[in-house]
Structures are given as structure tokens and as C-alpha cells.
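retry 2 of 3: previous attempt timed out while embedding flavin-adenine dinucleotide. Reduced batch size to 1 and resubmitted. Inputs unchanged:
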Amino acid sequence: MDSMKTTLNQFNSNQENSYDSVVVGGGMVGAATALGLAKLGLKVLLFEQKAPELVWDDATPFAVRVSALTRSSENILKNLGAWSGIENRRFQPFVAMNVWESGSENKLAFHAQEIMEPNLGHTVENFIVQAALWEQLEQQPNIKINLTEKIDTLTLPAGKDFQADAVLMLDSGRKITTQLVVGADGAFSKLRQLASIGLEQLDYEQCAVVGCVKTEKSHQNACWQRYTPDGPFAYLGMAEEVSSIAWYLPLDKMQWALSLDDKAFAREIEQASGFELGRVIHVAERSAFPLVRRHARSYVKPCFALVGDAAHTINPQAGQGVNIGLLDAAALIDQVSVALRQGRQIGTLPMLRKYERQRRGDNVIVQRSMEFFDKLFAAELLENFRHTVIDLTGQSKLSAPLKHWLMAQVLNGREEIPSLAKSSKPL
Ligand SMILES: Cc1cc2nc3c(=O)[nH]c(=O)nc-3n(C[C@H](O)[C@H](O)[C@H](O)COP(=O)(O)OP(=O)(O)OC[C@H]3O[C@@H](n4cnc5c(N)ncnc54)[C@H](O)[C@@H]3O)c2cc1C
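retry 2 succeeded.
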């Protein structure tokens, strides 16, 4: 933390008012964006409300918020130099994914070996991903971090004035100008509101209860997802025989689930998981989130772009939220890199529209495919059909190419991925 204080002190004693880019929100996606832009040589100012803890202690309790990172995300974090910060802390590769339905014995099993991969992804606590990125931010002399001032107003250039900058007014009365403001301030983005960008929303009327538990049987380095009439239940294998849980319930059961004491909670988890990993022998801190699909009506305006949850939130069942957010970051960095190579101004609307075109369609596909699966498993009428599909897909040799294709999609995303998401493309 000492070195972090040094960075902040440097900022406070050196208050500049003009930056190439200003990133608001230093969560996983904002930190990756700020780091990538700085690695292109830009002078970047990052606003965040709370710095993550960088000092690591092996005894740190497992956190409530965990993400399953795809290969694309791993590549982005490697290419930004942040993956070693994850390896130095705690992470768990998973080699298999098992999906089944209550009332049926048969599982649809996906194994990394089938596609000649060492694993299907990694489960990592969110604060560890963020800390690994912030460790790298500290190494960049051209990034300043502001934890104290707040943004009051944002003025974006109107019309086709490509030369004009965005202007941010801070609560201290200071004025900052920049060619590109990036809103990475999460689902309730203030920047999205300041930029007057509307939002499409769908309340799933569902919640996810999350936390970590220790089970009698090993998770076998796998993810386990069981569909029940209330919604799916998932175990994500973590280090040291611990699993992170994601327990999806109708929204009106959220308070009930949170009010259960440890013993009663453990019994409910055993039932929801069909005792797949045996008894639950320890329950840690837990939390619950109402699930809402959000999609910004536009990702961009002149000198302004939204990334990550500020642009879209999805049903977390497929564990894709931060993965598509990191792809946003990588795609935006790609477009800025092209503009710089061509000697053009960054943050022009045509440049930013290319970023939006690259990402919006993909994000819609991920959002909607999750809803399709949710509806498919929620419909009682389709029970026999689902059992047949799971049996056939799991057992038939003919279905192997379909399974391999699905695994490759989940692991790597679509073929046309940003350069930072490809292996060995360090900035
Ligand atoms: C239950 C659940 C399970 C999930 N599981 C997975 C999973 O397995 N895999 C996966 O890929 N995704 C998962 N997700 C989604 C994932 O957590 C999010 O997509 C991800 O955290 C978004 O990151 P972000 O950086 O865009 O936003 P956030 O994590 O919300 O970060 C925003 C940052 O901005 C800061 N901020 C906010 N306002 C301001 C302001 N005005 N000024 C300065 N800073 C500000 C905040 O402090 C925060 O640090 C899950 C989500 C839920 C709810």
C-alpha cells in the first residue's frame, strides 16, 4: 500500500488539468482499460472511489464475488502484464463443466481434454483480478489515480467538431479536459447519466445468492450446474477444496435465503445441488443480487465511450459479464491504437462507432443466449425434451463436434476478437 500512497501523493501535488484520456471507475474493466490506454503511451487519469487492497496474505478469507474467466480474458490480462499478479495470489483452473437437471441422472459433461486444452477457464475472486491490474497501474508513470475528487458535470462536443475536447467539472471546482472519457463505473453508471445515454432494462425477477462453501467431496477442479424448478444452482471449484456457489432463486425468496443461519443455509445448498459434492461442512459470508438485464441505448458519443457493466449487464448464469467487459476494453484499446498509428485524434465519433459496432452485436448475442437457456430450463412442458437433448448430446458421437464448438465459443469468444484477447500480443 505504501507505493500506492506515493502514487496518490504524486497526483495530489501535481494536479494537471489536461489528459489524453480520463477513465471513470477502476473496477476490473476500468482498470484494464486505463492500463491498456497508458501502455499505448497516452496520459491517463483514472477516477475511483475505493482503491483495492494490494498487500496479499494467504490467510485472506475467500471473497463473495468470484468470476469464471475465459481464455480471452486470461490473454487480455496476460498481455497487460497482470496475470502474474493473479498467479501470485489465488486462482483455480477448471478442467470440466457438468450440467444436469433435477429429476434426471444424466449429465452433460464438457472436458478440456476433448478440445485439447489444458483447462476451460479459471475461477478468480474479483478483488484479486482488480488488485493484479492496479499493481500494474502503479508501474505506469503516465497514469494518475484520483480517489478524492468527484465528477459533477460532463460536457461533450456537439455536432462534428472533431477537434473539441470533453470537459469534466469536479466537485473541487477543478476543470479537466480530455480527448476521450471512458465510463467504466458499473451498472449504475453516473457517467452514462451525465452523457444522457438511455438504458433498456429487463428485470429477470430472479436473484443470485453467492458466497463460498466447503464441501465433503472435492469439486474435482470442475464447475457443476444443476437446473432445479426454482432456477439453476452452481458450484465453481476454488482453491483448497472450497467452492464458490451461485444459487439462482425467484426474487421473492432473496430475503429468506439471506436470513438462513449457517446450518440451515448449508442444508438448503445440499438440496439445491442434489448432494453432488456431499454435505456442506462450512459456510462463509454470503450475499445476494437481484438480476437485471441492462443495455445502454448507445455505447458512444463524441469523446465518450462506455465499457463493461456501465454499458451492459447480463444474466450471470453463464459467467460472462466481466469477460465481455474485458473484450469491450480490448476492442476500445484496438481502435485507439489504430487512430494513434494513423496520426488521427482519438475519441472522434467515427472511431468510437467502430468500437461500438465491434462489441454491441456480440454483447446482445451473449445476453439473449443466456435468456434462451433460462427459459428452456424454466419451462415444465419441455422437461422430456430437455432430458432427451442432454442424453443425446452427452452420449452420441455425432454430437461431439457441437460440444467442441460450444466449448471453443465459451472459452475464446467469437473468431473476430480484439488483438489484446489473442495469445502473446503484449502491448
Ligand atoms: C452474482 C453475480 C455473479 C457473477 N459471476 C460472473 C462470472 O462468473 N463471470 C463473469 O465474467 N462475470 C460475472 N458476473 C458479472 C461481473 O461481476 C461484472 O460484469 C463485472 O464486475 C463488471 O465489472 P466492471 O468493472 O464493468 O464494473 P464494476 O465491477 O461494477 O466496477 C465499477 C467500478 O467503478 C467504481 N465507481 C462507480 N461509480 C464511480 C464514480 N462515480 N466515480 C469513480 N468510480 C466509480 C466502483 O467503485 C467500481 O470499482 C457476475 C455478476 C453477478 C451479480
